[in-house]
Amino acid sequence: MIRKTTYGYTVEKKDLYLDIAFYADNIVRFAYSTEEKLPDSTLAVIAKPQKTEVELEANVIKTNQLKIVIDEDTLKVSIYDLEGNLLSRDKAISTDKPKVEKQLIWENGFYGVGEKYAWLNKKGTETANWNTDVLGVAPLHNPRLKEYHTSIPFYIGLDNEKAYGIYFDNSHRTYFDFGKTKDDVVSFSAEGGNLDYYFIYDKKVSEVVKGYSLLTGTMPLPRKDFLGYQQCRWSYENREQLMEVATRMRKEGIPCDVLYLDIDYMVDYKVFTVDSEKFNEFREMLKRLKGMGYKVVVIIDPGVKVEEGYSVYEDGKARDYYVKDAEGKDYVGEVWPGDAVFPDFLRKEVREWWAELHKDLLEDGVEGIWNDMNEPSDFSTETKTIPEDCVHKTDDGEEKLHSEIHNMYGTLEAIGTYEGLRKLQPNKRPFLLTRAAFAGCQRYAALWTGDNSSIWEHLESSMPMFMNLGLSGYTFIGADVGGFDGDSNGELLARWTQLGAFTPLFRNHSAQGTINQEPWCFGEETLEITKKYIKLRYEFITYLYNLMRHSSLTGEPVMRPLFYHYQNDEKTHNINDQFLYGENIMVCPIVRPGADRRMIYIPEGEWYDYWTGEKIEGGQYIIKEAPIDILPIYVKAGAILPKDEVVEFVGQEEKTLHIHFYAGANGEYDLYLDDGMSFEYEDGVYSLVKFTMEDNKEKLVIKSEVNKDNYKIPALKLHIHGVDNKANVTLNGENLEVNEDFTVDVDKAEFELVVER
Ligand code: GLC
């Protein structure tokens, strides 16, 4: 029996109900349950169902985009587009142990599933989600490991002409099989919980990504200075070491915004303590660093040292805030401080208590928080996490097993910390970095991909990992540049810094006991190359900031696989080592030792070699020479790119903003400007300048329009690429003489420049 509900339909069969709810014409939730009550959603989903135009005829539901056919005997569904193409068909479903098997019909590739090793396209592979301290269970990140620090039970199936996404809203351990066990079956299942998933359809994969972001939210607009270069090490062990790094950066002329303190700043690894012997005059030190343009981030792990007299431990114990073991006692595991207990972040009051503990650090001048070991990691068990039968409590006092909460533990900690930072510093955008995450965690924290190694394979594999994270809603991401575990070397650091300069989080980090890998550690050549690319990062920082803003509004990632914009070109479906940085820049890192050239696929259209200005026709493979100081970068005709003059740190001084126009196609660009720091933009304190470029056989017309003017617009200088004729140029109707490299100063943000072809 199919019944209408407020947002869709319920189908009932004996003791089983299927609730079909619409979030848009192309976004449908399928929730199965044994009671006539919708299963609870996890913390990932923030969207609400919408009243949608739907009609039911017999067992067929039609929206403006989809036709859903329900088998009333089995509750299996088949989904078609309006032209009658089969998009998805259930082969088998089970609700005891939640599982769906779908027919693998037309999908050319499968993507998403967040932070996973191996190639971009997951077709023919299987994976699982259980947040894991990877180095705890394996010597190295490698493609045979399925479980990483992060769990995002979302995947995308696509071919040239269409795409869909399935978000399986289940926080238990989940499994995905993309045609591995049987080549015509794709399946997902979980150890517990409900069969509750969302189907998102569109012709374009980009719309599927936006649909997923609608369900699970987007990253908040980050601080601009945290997009600068970040330097870390486990550990800068005392004040002298940290200050030396800070001073050396400036002396070498390496731009740098953020420095980190890893676990050794604490007393015996007790969270919310500072070792004042190693870091004497902590507050004064932070003040000095601030004066030099640095922001300092400190690590906070969830494990609280069990120690009588340690106020955080005792306070949490007195309030009964720790996760319990199966017998109802505080569960004691082992992390850096030895015996440790774990706050039960499932409860709001625990999160609020935890948040409040950050107060002193912030007052001292700490500007960001780094949440590590939050899978949570536990050295005392074989699985390297706390036992699945540990017990959490909800706000209503209901008990939940850790097996259900585990994958969300890091995100729950992030929620507490993010909200706490907002409360403690209401007009400063929080910076929070996390290792463990669940779907939706992008709303609270940036993410780094954990303990990689200083090996070329990890440089290479980071790219598909980033692209799949981007497709899974995570934009603010990065890996430890230079590699964390093991010794790095000059060539590897140089190549890794080239890629790092184009990842939203750009942090060099290395492990205790390994060789130091700050930019100056491997000789003059490496220093010059890393410096060149860190500077390039700062040249593109306004461009990146604008991409981040766009992502905060839409969920579109900064780092995109080529098929994101060239889906109809099948050659792009398996490109692992090139990515788009926004729509118009393509980055092609070198990921092999000794390589001084590589093959590059140039997608359709006309492109410019960023370094030489040479024009290249798309739709072909080329070999690009790339000696150690060259990272191949391409810019698409029609691109309009803002570029900054390099500073030592973001906001150091006001400089001219250069706007680069790449002729050869029409283009437009919205430049967004604000203070990069506060929430005043929410009240309209920002500026928006729209640039357009129209290029046809007779003339090139470049115009700008100030659409909002509530934040200072800097001086602008224009650079036009790809135009030979420098005669017959007018600026605002006046004849203009242009120089060799076609740069033009404008004294007003609004202008019109015409070049006769
Ligand atoms: C974990 C982190 C690493 C950190 C180390 C010490 O291994 O992933 O980044 O440096 O712990 O805190």
UniProtKB/TrEMBL annotation:
Domain named DUF5110 is located at 656-720
A single GO molecular function term of this UniProt record: carbohydrate binding
Give the matching SUPFAM superfamilies.
(Trans)glycosidases (SSF51445), Galactose mutarotase-like (SSF74650), Glycosyl hydrolase domain (SSF51011)
This entry's Enzyme Commission designation comes to: 3.2.1.20
- What range(s) does the Glycoside hydrolase family 31 TIM barrel domain occupy? 220-547
Broadest EC class assigned to this enzyme: hydrolase
Q: What is this protein called?
A: Alpha-glucosidase
